[in-house]
Amino acid sequence: MPDATIDITREICPMTYVRVKLAVEALEDGATLEVLLRGSEPLLNVPRSAREDGHEVLSLLPLADGTARLTLRVHH
Questions:
Q1: Alpha-carbon distance 58 to 32, whole Å?
Q2: What is the DSSP string of 6-61?
Q3: Which of 33, 32, 43 is nearest to 9 (CA)?
Q4: Which residues make Cβ contacts (< 8 Å) with residue 25, sequence separation at least 6?
Q5: The CA-based dihedral angle spanning residues 27, 30, 32, 37, taken in that order and rounded to the nearest 10 degrees
Q6: What pLDDT is stored for residue 14 in this prediction?
Q7: CB 34 within 8 A of CB 26
Q8: Cα separation of 32 and 39, whole Å?
Q9: Is 64 a catalytic residue?
Q10: pLDDT tens, position by position, for the chain (76 residues)?
Q11: Cis omega (within 30 of 0) for bond into 14
């Protein structure tokens, strides 16, 4: 069970990662964040940006409705 979940399926880049970054900042080190996202650009950019910021991508799973679920471990 993640510590927090955000839905960015209606956001467009660059707001997709801005929303993720704000959610990450509100969490403690080691917490997990689940991100629901949609679209090829967020699927590529959000996990990459999270890794570049030092967070761990635990999983990226496509869902039946065309969205995906990204799970991150937060590292500050």
A1: 9
A2: EE-TT--TTHHHHHHHHHHHTSPTT-EEEEEE-SHHHHHHHHHHHHHTT-EEEEEE
A3: 43
A4: none
A5: 80
A6: 85
A7: no
A8: 22
A9: no
A10: 899 999 999 998 889 999 999 999 999 999 999 999 999 999 999 999 999 999 999 999 999 999 999 999 999 9
A11: yes
Comparing CA positions, the residue from 22, 5, 15 lying closest to residue 42 is 15
Tokens of 19: 């929303």
The one catalytic residue among 4, 13, 31, 60: 13
Q: Of 76, 63, 56, which Cα lies nearest the Cα of 7?
A: 63
